[in-house]
Amino acid sequence: MFSFDVAKKYSRIYFIDVILPIPIAKTFTYSVTKEEADFLQIGMRVAVSFGKSKMYSALVFTIHQNPPELYEPKEIHQILDETPIVHSKQLKHWEWIANYYMCAIGEVYRAAVPSAFLLESETIIHKNTSFTNVEILNDEEFLLYEALQRQSQLTLHEVTAILDKKKVFPVINQLIDKSVLYIKEEIYETYKPKLVKYVRLHENYRQEAGLQSLLTELSRAKKQRDAVLTFFQLKTEKKPIKAKTLQEKAKVSSQILKSLVDKNIFEFYQIQTDRVEYKGEENPLKNLNEHQVKALSELKKEFETKDITLLHGVTSSGKTEVYTKLIKEVLATGKQVLFLLPEIALTTQIITRLQNYFGNQISVFHSKYSVNERVEVWNNVLESKSKAQIILGARSAVFLPFSNLGLIVVDEEHEVSYKQFEPSPRYNARDAAVVLGKIHNAKILLGSATPSLESKFNADQQKYGLVNLTRRHGNVQMPKIELIDIKEKRKKREMTGHFSNRLIKLIDEALEEKEQVILFQNRRGFSPIVECSTCGHSPQCPNCDVSLTYHKYRNELKCHYCNYQRAMPNSCGACGSTSLDTKGFGTEQIELELKELFPNHTIGRMDSDTTRGKYGYQKIIEAFESQEIDVLVGTQMLSKGLDFENVSLVGILSADTMLNFPDFRAHERAFQLMVQVSGRAGRSKKQGMVAIQTYNPYHQILQQVSTNNYGEMYKEQLQDRWQYFYPPYYRVIKITLKHKDYVKVDEGINWLVKALQNVFRENVLGPTAPAVSRIRNQYIKNLMIKIPPKQSLVKTKEQIQRIKTSFEAVKEFRPIRFILDIDAY
Predict the structure, then answer these.
(1) What are the residue ranges of helices labelled H in 189-289?
(2) Would you kindly state where each structural domain of the chain is located, as residue ranges?
(3) Distance CA 407, CA 584 (A)
(4) In terms of DSSP bridges, do strands 336-340 and 390-393 run parallel, antiparallel, or are they unpaired?
(5) Are 312 and 468 in contact (CB under 8 A)?
(6) Backbone dihedral region of 674: left (phi > 0), alpha (psi from -120 to 50 degrees) or beta?
(7) CATH architecture of 4-117
(8) Kind of pairing, strands 443-448 and 405-411?
(9) pTM listed for this prediction
(10) Percentage of residues in the chain with pLDDT exceeding 90?
(11) Mutual angle of helices 222-235 and 208-217, in 10-degree steps
(12) How far apart are CA 354 and CA 323, in angstroms?
């Protein structure tokens, strides 16, 4: 405790508790003056020093007059905002995420805000003007000293460039010891607003008389005269004229415009604009069919008594049209709408659809946007601007600063993409959206053709409302599903590469009818394994316990876990043999086989290798929609929600890999994925066709997929979950330990298992090593804790936290990374 004198010293000083963007569980207290305390509001950022010299942009969490008991608080460096960038409701949501997912609120802060808001310090090196004894410096030190004579300060980046080496701190420390220089940490802003250059007439020429003399004056300067005449043509539209537009229309260079500015004929001015703008006209919504009208009225009825409703609508039943009707009604009340999608690929089509109805009231927020673009969307939502009434986004959109949220739509709610696995916070966007809706008193609509077992179970237990939409739009029949036994086909030699003769025939028929085909293979690259046929050696990743995937297009071997890559070898690294063979197949190999089988048709590929750029998804989807691509091969990003009118055939090349995955949700996920992929077929007029190649056509899941029997799958899987104590009956918490030393991880996990078994007995599963037990040179061991239905989740977490604290107190275990994942599925 502080003495009475210290308490007296603080009696007239104010304090703020701040959230720092670092993985430390608690907030930190800093002192502020009364004037600063009066100006500050919760949700503003302040620059503070933390540790020896590091500066952070911290978020004000509370303002009070209680000094901390265990340390003397530092003063803040500066206030960074004039108004809060985060709402109090947002902070409440962040606190829930931190508590529920057992992570630091600082980690939520770092994940939630665009990185441009997380100002961090840059080390600045200043020269000491009183230093003169140059003889004591060595060559490297003198090089820096000389640079500081030309400019009074240098950044760390500049020092690295001057010395042409990465490790510059030893040199800097030597110079500090010799009193040649000193260092300071300065905070820097990374967001720059986009300013667009416009042009207008100089005030001397805004009257009629001035204009006549101007044209006479420019009679000899033809290009300049053209620019002025074009300016007057554009001026009739009564809109500000962009300098770039004037250049293009008058066919003049920027130099011509500059010379007109120098002559005081034109003047430039700048207007701040958003980097991403959606222009669109508002059109009337489509008329709903009788089944959609019924579903909509049932939804409204459910919302009268329940905040959360599950819309279980088969693929192509027109769920999006039902969403749009609800969105229109919510917008009419002046509230905001959040529309969550699992994949960025889906935003491309949905944006176009929603723009037709809602014009430019839409903003989009996801990771393919640049930092500056995300800052602009954040600010528009914060200020509740008209262009941010509907927010369309991937999982991170739940963190945006909504002030009056009325509806949250979680489309394809069953998708695993809603779960964040790395880094922390390891939240599920669907569950976080449910809590966000509760905080804002908003309605939550979960939509899916294959709902997750948890959501369907909650609906059965009357926690959620439930509305079914069982007919496809336009009464188009559900696709016909055919299972092709490739074990039989291989015996009869009726396979060409990875295609059965039946699948080739079906593709042929579809292409002859000028229809399109989608082929699904949930693995990218050419081949997952390269093997020497002489000695059996397979090239492995040096950093991970996994074989390297062969990418033929770049002729390289690549690790999909750590991105390690190397050129494809000409001979075996173990025995020197040149007979290298490939095992397994990915989307790249399928694409090449198709080009040989169908040389007169255009083949496209959609996976994370071909959609790297910002508009990667858009280009491929638009090309497929405009029928420039006949056959599209892709991974699971093709399976969800995309709507292509002309697709009549969908082929699943290898169903077995999905079924044989070591996970309690493997069968549920396989069913969902196959039904979703199948749903891309025959969406407009005639019945579509789905061909599934498998070694085991009698597998119960494949039989359920072939009859589109969700009810049977749900009942069967629920029975398994009850029998083996898994969600939705039991909760699951996964603990992962990682370290580069295998022995340390092994000792750590064994200690942890014993400690946890003392408390949770038989509900501790493990320890186990995952299928890939070393990633980026870190060995991995897992264990799982099951929480029975009547056991308190809060108390369980408290016990785990206590054991974690004890674990980290053991000196040998301190370097081991301890990862907690709540609801790890």
Answers:
(1) 208-217, 222-235, 243-250, 254-262
(2) 4-117, 121-187, 203-264, 290-469, 480-525+586-720, 527-584, 731-822
(3) 45
(4) parallel
(5) yes
(6) alpha
(7) 3-Layer(aba) Sandwich (3.40)
(8) parallel
(9) 0.78
(10) 24
(11) 150
(12) 10
